[in-house]
Design goal:
- The protein is mostly helical.
- The protein has one domain (2-24, 39-82).
- 78% of the residues lie in helices and 0% in strands.
- It has 4 helices and no strands.
- The longest helix has 30 residues, at 53-82.
- The radius of gyration is 19 Å and the shape is elongated.
Length: 83
């Protein structure tokens, strides 16, 4: 069981580092006053946002955050059974 806890800890650390990097690489959400006036959601990129790099980064962030949550809970239960 200790080996499983060590492996889960390493995987959790790697997920945490990758999640931090992905969040830091994303652009800010505030489009400013010009985005509010021009209606940025009506543009081509607004309609096809999932295909852009930013859309893929958002999806990757959601997946990594879910993995982080699940790994943290599993690691908690594994370590609590060891005690």
């Amino acid at each position: 069981m200790k080996t499983l806890a060590i492996i889960l800890s390493i995987v959790l650390l790697l997920v945490c580092l990758v999640l931090s990097a992905v969040v830091l690489l994303q652009e800010g959400k505030s489009a400013g006053l010009s985005g509010a006036i021009s209606g940025a959601a009506e543009t081509y990129f607004g309609k096809n946002k999932a295909r852009t790099l930013e859309g893929k980064m958002e999806r990757l962030t959601k997946i990594l955050a879910a993995c982080y949550l699940v790994l943290a809970l599993v690691l908690y239960f594994v370590v609590s059974t060891l005690s």
